[in-house]
Amino acid sequence: MHGKFDDLGRFADPSALILTSLADGPKHGYAIMTDIAAFSGVGMEPGTLYGALSRLERRGWIRPLTADERRRPYEITAVGQQVLAEQLQSMQQIVRTGRQRIATA
Amino acid sequence: MKPALADRLCRALVGCYPHRWKQRYAAEMLDVLDQHRAGPRTVLSLAGGALTTHLDPGYRMEIRPMPRLSKDAKLAVVLSAAVPAALFALVALPAIAQNIRESSWHLSNSGAVGPVAFSRDRRILAGAADGPPWSGTSILWDVTDQALPRRLAAFEGGNPTTISPDGRTVATIAFGGQPILWNVTRPRHPARLAVLSAGLAGGPWGEAFSPSGRLLAAASTSELVLWNVADPARPRLLRTLAAPVQTGNPGNFDLGDGDLVFSPDGRILASASGTDQITLWNVTRPARATRIATLRGPSDYFTALAFSPRANLLAGVTFHGSVLVFRLAGPGHPVRVATRPHLLASARFPGGGRGPADPCNPGCATAAYAIGFTPDGHSLTVVIDRSEAFPSTTDRDTVFTWQVASSGALSDLTTIFRNVSDSQPTLAPGDRIVADGSELGGKVHLWTLP
Question: Are A70 and B30 a contacting pair at CB < 8 A?
Answer without folding.
Answer: yes
